[in-house]
Amino acid sequence: MTVRHAVPSDAAAIADVAARTFALACPPSTPPEATAAFIATSLSESAFADYLADPARTLLVAESAVGAPFDGYAMLVVGEPADPDVAGAIRIRPTAELSKIYVRTASHGRGTAAELMTRSLDAARSAGADGVWLGTNVENARAQRFYAKHGFVVVGAKRFKLGDRYEDDLVFERAL
Ligand SMILES: CC(C)(COP(=O)(O)OP(=O)(O)OC[C@H]1O[C@@H](n2cnc3c(N)ncnc32)[C@H](O)[C@@H]1OP(=O)(O)O)[C@@H](O)C(=O)NCCC(=O)NCCS
User: Fold this and answer.
1) Pocket lining: 102 vs ligand 1, CB cutoff 6 Å
2) Residue of 17, 105, 146, 150 to test ligand 1 pocket, by largest number of atoms within 8 Å of CB
3) In this structure, which residue's CA is closest to atom 36 in ligand 1?
């Protein structure tokens, strides 16, 4: 497995791994149609083409020896958070959001996510950030443990609209 920076031609393969992994981060009570709608709008090939073209974003992919399908991906967004709850919670600026870090189930616990995390933090440092924040669902215990292992602490809470209801997220932050 190698982690590398994504290139524009990776958009379809990232959308594929994103569609396979998004529901893993959602509470079991999430309506399947809400998950499907989010995948169709925010995790489509064209959405990732836009993300890849955005200079504020860095996308990383974890690639097995055979290439796609990818084992996982991460997306970092440099800049001040738009969400006022997050802006009020974080303590370190300039900041970057670890907006997505998703690994296929078969690769959990095997170091893939750790490598994506290390490389995302490196990218944030290179972009001039002094801190990194992220949001994760209050019920996502595995992700919370993973973030704690990587030096993140809870600094606040925010809401995430999925379908027609709001999910409760914890806001984590760490210094670089
Ligand atoms: C979050 C994610 C990237 C972490 O990668 P990972 O390879 O699973 O992480 P690790 O195995 O290194 O760490 C997970 C830790 O949680 C622990 N864990 C697993 N299930 C748990 C649970 N239900 N409650 C608490 N801890 C749990 C593991 O034992 C491990 O801790 P340990 O190393 O001390 O034993 C990965 O699980 C993933 O892609 N999940 C689905 C998508 C997701 O939730 N992404 C984050 C969205 S914010």
Assistant:
1) yes
2) 146
3) 103
The rounded Å distance from CA 108 to ligand 1 centre is 7
Domain locations in the chain? Answer: 2-175
**Two tokens at 37?**
């709608």
> Would you say residue 68 has pLDDT above 80?
no
Residue 170 CB less than 6 A away from ligand 1: no
Phi-psi region of 79 (alpha: psi -120 to 50; beta: other; left: phi over 0): left
pLDDT in tens, 89-117: 999 999 999 999 999 999 999 999 999 99
pLDDT at 33: 95
Token couple for 85: 């709850």
Give the distance from CA 111 to its chain's centroid: 16
Atom of ligand 1 nearest to the CA of 112: 7
For residue 66, the 8-state DSSP code is: T
Question: Is the per-residue pLDDT at 51 higher than 90?
Answer: yes
Sheet holding 2-5: strands in order across? 2-5, 57-64, 67-78, 95-103, 131-137, 165-175, 153-162
Q: pLDDT digits over 109-154, tens only? A: 999 999 999 999 999 999 999 999 999 999 999 999 999 999 999 9
CATH class of 2-175: alpha beta
